[in-house]
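Work Package 4 report. The design task specified in the project plan requires that, given a folded chain encoded as structure tokens, an amino acid be chosen for each position. We show below one input record used in the internal validation round.
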């Protein structure tokens, strides 16, 4: 069994802290998902900060903003800004109309109901729910984006399944008690696995010879080896 704690420690030594993990407010996390589409992290962060500066991040401020202001902020996050502006307004109306403007009420629901309610927000599926629950420190869960999931399947934590959802569940199950009740470790894992997947363990042509965890990787053991470019302390 792969020592996930050791992998995360090694990656966090390579990458350091991640600024996304500083967002803890659940409604702000919904906005963060919707403010950009097919955008780099830097662009998503810039669009989110533009929204924060120009309008604010509360349901009341989003609902009261003009279409033009919402679209202007969403435009910084890539294509279809009108659609994403409408989705942010829809999310705000949901919190105002059904939860009195207090999204924290959703987090106090029992787990199954809480997940159902969070999935009513635009662009929030099970991985998005997990991210909200983790970063808001509501539930210690291994939350993974597509990049982090790819890293863990290539490492050999679990086999890839026919669907993304099935692979996601298989990896979470295989990870078992990793990080149980340890929010800090799980938040770090979410950030560094995502970054490793984006920058090194790319979907096509992963940069395995530069990877600091290649000695622990099942995929790496199956590929022909090129010249060794091992870094000091490589795991
Ligand atoms: S060795 Fe290659 S496939 Fe394995 S985690 Fe590193 S980059 Fe990904």
């Amino acid at each position: 069994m792969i020592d996930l704690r050791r992998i995360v420690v090694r990656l966090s030594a390579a990458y350091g802290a991640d600024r996304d993990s500083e967002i803890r407010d659940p409604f702000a996390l919904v906005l963060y998902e919707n403010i950009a589409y097919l955008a780099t992290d830097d662009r998503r962060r810039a669009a989110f900060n533009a929204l924060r500066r120009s309008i604010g991040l509360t349901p009341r401020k989003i609902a009261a903003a003009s279409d033009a202001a919402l679209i202007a902020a969403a435009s910084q996050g890539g294509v279809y800004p009108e659609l994403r502006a409408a989705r942010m307004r829809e999310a705000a109306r949901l919190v105002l109309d059904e939860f009195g403007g207090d999204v924290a009420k959703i987090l106090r629901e029992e787990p199954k109901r809480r997940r159902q309610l969070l999935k009513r927000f635009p662009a929030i599926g099970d991985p998005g729910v997990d991210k909200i629950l983790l970063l808001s420190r509501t539930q210690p869960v291994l939350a993974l984006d597509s990049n982090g999931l790819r890293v863990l399947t290539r490492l050999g934590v679990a086999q890839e399944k026919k669907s993304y959802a099935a692979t996601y569940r298989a990896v979470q199950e295989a990870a078992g008690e990793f990080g149980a009740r340890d929010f800090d470790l799980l938040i770090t894992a979410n950030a560094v696995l995502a970054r490793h997947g984006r920058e090194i363990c790319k979907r096509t042509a992963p940069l395995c010879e530069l990877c600091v965890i290649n000695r622990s990787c099942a995929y790496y053991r199956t590929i022909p080896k090129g010249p060794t470019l091992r870094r000091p302390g490589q795991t």
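The pocket of iron/sulfur cluster is lined by residues 151, 154-155, 200-201, 206-208, 211, 213-214, 217, 219-220 (CB under 6 Å). Validation will be extended to a larger panel in the next phase.
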